[in-house]
Design goal:
Layout lengths: L1 E9 L2 E6 L2 E9 L2 H10 L5 E5 H6 L5 H10 L4 E4 L5 H9 L4 E4 L1 H5 L1 H10 L4 E8 L2 E4 L4 E6 H7 L7 E6 L11 H10 L4 E4 L5 H8 L5 E4 L1 H4 L5 H14 L1
Parallel strand pairs: 1-4, 1-12, 4-5, 5-6, 6-7, 7-10, 10-11, 11-12
Antiparallel strand pairs: 1-2, 2-3, 7-8, 8-9
Helix pairs in contact: 1-3, 9-11
Amino acid sequence: MQVIPAIDLRGGLCVRLQQGDYDRETVFGDDPAAMAGRWVSEGAERIHLVDLDGAKAGKPVNVQAVRSIVESVKVPCQLGGGVRDEATIATWLDAGLDRVIVGTQALRDPEWFRSMAEKHPGRLVLGLDARDGMVAVGGWLETSDVPAAELAARFDDLPLAAIIYTDIARDGTLEGPNLDATGALCRRVKTPVIASGGVGELADVERTATLPVAGCIVGRALYEGKFTLRDAVERAARASSRS
């Protein structure tokens, strides 16, 4: 299981939101590229980027910050937030991103998402953000009536790189990930699943690594110094080897 550090971008800064609430923001740095370099130096094999402004606006916003990160590190980077059309996908892939994450538009226009996944095999990720088990879209500002697991199953035949499952109620908190929902999703689909939201201590990383997940995204706990990325990577490797 990869431990994947998150860099959430708002106004060109590294921030974290509490449960997806734009009014509950904490700024952790003003140099996203330097932050990415720090995580790579501690063992990151992949960086997870979120354009928070883009998620809300429905179009790319933190373009320069993302480009500076991609140009400064030698590990693959994936990005989500505001990816709603083919031009945006092409722009980010051309900028050097390894994977592009689509959430809102996959729900709103499933046929379009299917065509994009088939056109870019192995390069798209389904961003599955859930509030009380239902898919949330539009920068988490709207909650649909579609169960998250059901949406994942609809797209399980596509050549997706992964599914990122985030329980919004846990995201930005340190209460621990929703292992039951994540595990249930892993058992339902064959597409690799990446867990996200709520990791607060090394034990959370270890517990997540016992699930059949491809990765675990970690944010606030790293920024607040609850543990180091290096320790998390080592703990995940040990737990995965025992599973």
